[in-house]
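Sorry to interrupt, but I need a hand with the structure work. Leave the record below and I will have a look:
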Amino acid sequence: MKENILIAEDEPKLAALLGDYLKASGFDFFIIAEGTGVESWVRENKPGLILLDIMLPGKDGMEICKAIRAFSRVPIIMVTARIEEIDRLLGLELGADDYICKPFSPREVVARVKAVLRRTRDGQAIQAQGLVLDEKTYRATFHGRNLELTAVEFKLLQLLVEHPGRIFSRQQIMNKIYQEERFVSDRTVDSHIKKLRRKIELIDPQSTLIQSVYSVGYKFEPDL
């Protein structure tokens, strides 16, 4: 059975484009162009995931996300043209599973949809580009070979793989990965990235899966 994706987006051309890419990747989809009808549709149809634009007419995405979280754990990816950090954090605090900023590549959106669905399905290992990550055992393999990662390296790789194309600053990585460690610097993050890359490149010297974004941070960039 195909996963049904709700696209809550008031730009008709963009919504149609996203729908075409999702359909080509094996998903069904439904488009709603205004905010007031989203909650009732979700209650009646129980989609597999929601692509939720923040700036919807009638009722904005933030309100909708908060309302849906009162009755459903359906995965939600917030879509926004606002790039201010407070909006991103607020969206996630309201219960969103991820966010993506406009302008974006439709292929990146499909990759994010697949990644969010993978990590919200209990008992399933994360798989991407030859990588297989088993959170229960903290075991990661690349093209069938064990990467022999430390717990920190595993969590770092998991964070990046679960959000393909999304750039994480060093500070964001520190906040998410090293919550129990008091003294962590930017150099610590860089050191773990370097070790992680080295282990991947021992298996595939041509790998460019973990990329640096100059003066910003790091991202996982799969071949879409």
In short: The two ends are 23 Å apart (CA to CA). The longest strand covers residues 4-8.
